[in-house]
Amino acid sequence: MRFWAGVTDNAWFNVLSQSAPDEVNFWQPRGAAAYAALEPGTPSLVKLKRPCHHIAGGGYFVKSTSLPLSIAWEAFGPKNGAAHRDGFEKLVRGLLTDPTVRDPEIGCTVLAQPDPCQPARRVS
Fold first, then answer.
1. Predicted local distance difference test score (pLDDT) of residue 10
2. Which letter, b or e, does each residue of 53-87 get, where b requires 16 or more Cβ atoms within 10 Å of its Cβ?
3. Does some domain include residue 76?
4. How many domains does the chain fold into?
5. Residue 122: what pLDDT?
6. Are 3 and 43 spatial neighbours (Cβ–Cβ below 8 Å)?
7. Which of 6, 21, 30, 68 has the largest count of CB atoms under 10 Å?
8. Residue 122 domain-assigned?
9. What are the 10-residue block averages of pLDDT along the chain, 124 residues in total?
């Protein structure tokens, strides 16, 4: 079985896991559509950054494309992992090489049926 795993910001995951959306935008701060070779329906896992370092959920790959930040917000709104556009823009600009670009292109990977899982507990 083929699957895809992506590493994400913990805050992005926390916002989305609390709202239970039907789809999410797993965005990247650069405009390249890095996952264009994936087939629709490919199982996709989401791994959190430190300090968590575990698979926290997943969904199914729909499509990967590049969009201006403004269009990504119009298309996905809070499904970008931020409650408001200002917060989304701050997240994106904090990761850009040149944060002064007027409407930067970002990579957008749509995952359908996202489902957060409960992380396994460590046994001492």
1. 87
2. eeebbbbbbbebebbebeebbeebebbbbbeebee
3. yes
4. 1
5. 44
6. yes
7. 21
8. no
9. 84 90 93 74 91 88 94 98 96 92 95 78 43
For residue 41, the domain's CATH number is 2.30.130.30
Is the Cα torsion angle 57, 60, 61, 62 positive or negative in sign?
Answer: negative
The answer as to whether 108 is a domain residue is yes
Handedness of CA 113, 116, 118, 119 (dihedral sign): positive
Give pLDDT, residue 36.
62
> In Å, how far are 2, 24, 91, 98, 105 from 102, measured between CA atoms?
38, 24, 15, 10, 10
Q: How far apart are CA 85 and CA 78, in angstroms?
A: 8
Run of H or E residues at 73: helix 69-76
Q: Which amino acid is at 30?
A: R
Task: Extract the tokens encoding 114.
Answer: 């996202």
In terms of phi and psi (left: phi > 0; alpha: psi -120 to 50; beta: otherwise), the region of 15 is alpha
Query: Is 10 within the bounds of a domain?
Result: yes
Question: Domain range for residue 18?
Answer: 4-116
Query: Rounded to whole angstroms, how far apart are CA atoms 115 and 99?
Result: 32
